[in-house]
Amino acid sequence: MGVQVVVTLLAASLMQKMAPHCxxxxxxxxxxxxxxxxxxxxxxxxxxxxxxxxxxxxxRRASGVAEDKPLSVPRDIELQLDTSPITAVxxxxxxxxxxxxxFVDFSVYAGAVYAFSEGYFCLVSPAxxxxxxxxxxxxxxxxxxxxxxxxxxxxxxxxxxxxxSVCLTSAFFFLLLAMLALVVREDYLEFGLEAGLxxxxxxxxxxxxxxxxxxxxxxxxxxxxxxxxxLSSFLGACLTFPGxxxxxxxxxxxxxxxxxxxxxxxxxxxxxxxxxxxxxWVRPLARDFLLQAPLGKQTVQILSDxxxxxxxxxxxxxxxxxxxxxxxxxxxxxxxLAERWVRRMRRQAGRIPARDxxxxxxxxxxxxxxxxxxxxxxxxxxxxxxxLLKTLGQHSWGLYPAVSPAVSPAxxxxxxxxxxxxxxxxxxxVVVQEISGLLGCIFTPPFFRGLFSFLTWxxxxxxxxxxxxxxxxxxxxxxx
Length: 480
Hints:
By secondary structure, the chain is mainly alpha-helical. The chain contains 19 helices and six strands. Helix 11 (261-279) crosses helix 19 (445-477). The radius of gyration is 28 Å and the shape is elongated. The termini are far apart. The relative contact order is 0.14.
């Protein structure tokens, strides 16, 4: 494992040392392709409203005026917002920019370490050596959940707009949907979760039966499913507002890309990518169709089971990378909300404080890093779940022979020893062997295959539901 440890330490050191100088996350926002809208100053608003320039505090104090009324302007003024490219200095004022930069950079380094580990195992085929790229992917999945918690915390702290109620309602809705997905037969949704749990039960039974604990197996299975349902509900609640935001930026990006058919094609494919991922786990539409394709009155097998699993992995990775290509268009569509807000303000009557105009335009820009997390977070989570599915589920990329999944044998049951004496050291070794054997019986390739198949499918399904509801909301409900 020495080579992998060296590469891991090198990647961690590079991520720490190179972050101030070379950062993919900072380049994504500050490469000069994104333009922000600058809020107007008081002088510019006064000139547009036909007013005199507001006096400074020193002039008001010299003229004997204690306090002046807040500056207000008519809503229908001809306000044109200036634009400027986002620079690294401008990014310092963004909300959660450091969290965004660290998370995106970590996911990039995790992908690089995983790619190296896969190539290392393909070329060298080391025996009795763990894949440290899996550890990086697991950490990326955990950090994705942490990022979702940070973003959702804003909605729970908000006292206006009903964001908290939307999160709780979506959590309850996805709780019911997750229970429904887990009771669907494997003939329709092929996660392999039931086969994985059955294998774990058969492995644990020889260990628990001599101790009289075999009655805990059904309870453990039920507890695992309840925990998976709770996790699915939480992920669904976290992905609600990213899906709504994705629908809004998708519509705005399409309107901004009018006359650019290639850009519109990229946006459409990126938007329907989660739909394609969901369909890959629907057995009648995916596996059965390709393994038993109808050709007249006969059926033709286009792919084998292993080839279909490989094709599904490559499809998830390709669709995730394709969505990454549309990041700039979606972020620019979000930044254009400032100009859209100004146009909507002009259609209204009355007056508005100048500070409200400045605050609203500045707020849109300050939250662009949060919107970046909402867009990139689900993509990164789906991609790394697929990578974990490949490695822990012992699938293959199709570039080299697949490793046949092996079922871990049950750990031997040690005979009880009398306390004390020279056998204490041996007892410790026996206990360690039993614990490692027990973990090997639980965390088997079929179990990981079922777990990460479900998580990959679930994250994509949540994106499909929330983004489609967002399309309906922004096109019909918000416009009315």
